[in-house]
Automatic annotation (TrEMBL):
It comes from the Bacteria. The chain crosses the membrane at residues 21-42, 71-92, 112-129, 141-163, 175-196, 216-235, 247-273. The keyword Cell division does not apply. It comes from Kordia aestuariivivens. This is DUF2306 domain-containing protein. The keyword Cell division does not apply. Keywords: Membrane, Transmembrane, Transmembrane helix.
Length: 280
């Protein structure tokens, strides 16, 4: 009863500040995870590429570098290279301190980021539609395929709204693009969080990498159903005049921040570091 009274007395500006602070908290946790992921890409894929040991990529990819498939391997290399670029450039694009102090860098980085996401989406579509073997069953591969189309669509609207100088709409489309293009990151974080919480592979088979949980996770992450839904709820809370709605959304973001940090920890020690520690 006491909590309800306090909530009813909370001012609109204070509730709005709490909402913004909770969103920043999640973003900081995501940036941490993104930069760790970028280091992993550079250390594992980049390290083995420098040694021309592309076959070592298959330690992390179920159907990675395939001898004799030169075109497919080329697009795979491009896809991983661009994944590194967007993982670094994406978070920088949304940092208000950089955007305010270095507007020229923001514009240049934005062009690089947008161009890279479009090429990455196109290479992802090629890898999905070329007949190349992919992990999982068709129910998991479909959302990965569709995500390539979504990346191209979101990228188009991000560019279109920028050219129209509709910066509010541009920011929203850029955020949607940021979430959908990081589907692989969300998938890995979600998978390892699940493994930690469940104490093992519940809802799927670790050997075949198939099962209902992975199908659900694929749609939630590659199509961005979960993160995009949270983003749209955040937009609604931002525009709402109700203090209650802002506080509920802020509370949800705090929970998601904790889940993200735990997922990053689980992925770092359960997937990335073990892969890096495997001797050549």
């Amino acid at each position: 009863m006491k909590d309800k009274v306090n909530l009813s007395k909370m001012s609109y500006p204070k509730a709005n500040n709490i909402l913004v602070l909770s969103a920043k908290s999640w973003f900081i946790s995501a940036v941490l995870g993104q930069f760790i992921f970028a280091y992993y890409i550079a250390a594992f894929y980049g390290g083995h590429a420098l040694n021309t040991d592309f076959k070592a990529w298959n330690r992390a990819l179920t159907h990675g570098f395939v001898v004799g498939e030169d075109i497919g391997n080329f697009f795979l290399i491009l896809h991983i290279l661009f994944a590194f670029i967007i993982t670094v450039a994406g978070p920088l694009q949304f940092m208000s301190s950089i955007r305010g102090r270095f507007p020229s860098f923001h514009r240049i980085n934005g062009r690089i980021y947008l161009f890279t996401t479009l090429i990455m989406g196109a290479t992802g579509l090629y890898l999905s539609m070329s007949g190349r073997k992919l992990a999982g069953d068709p129910s998991q591969q479909l959302p990965f395929l569709l995500s390539g189309f979504l990346i191209l669509i979101f990228g188009f609207f991000t560019l279109y709204t920028a050219l129209k100088r509709n910066f509010k709409a541009h920011r929203r489309w850029a955020l949607r693009l940021f979430l959908i293009v990081n589907g692989v990151w969300f998938f890995r974080i979600g998978l390892n969080l699940w493994l930690m919480l469940m104490g093992g592979p519940v809802g799927f088979d670790m050997e075949t990498f198939q099962g209902p949980f992975l199908t659900i996770l694929g749609y939630a992450s590659f199509l961005g159903i979960f993160p995009l839904s949270i983003l749209e709820l955040y937009f609604l809370a931002q525009n709402s005049s109700k203090v209650y709605g802002k506080i509920v959304m802020a509370s949800l973001l705090v929970l998601l921040t904790l889940a993200t940090l735990i997922g990053i920890y689980a992925t770092l020690f359960g997937m990335w570091l073990p892969t890096l520690s495997i001797p050549n």
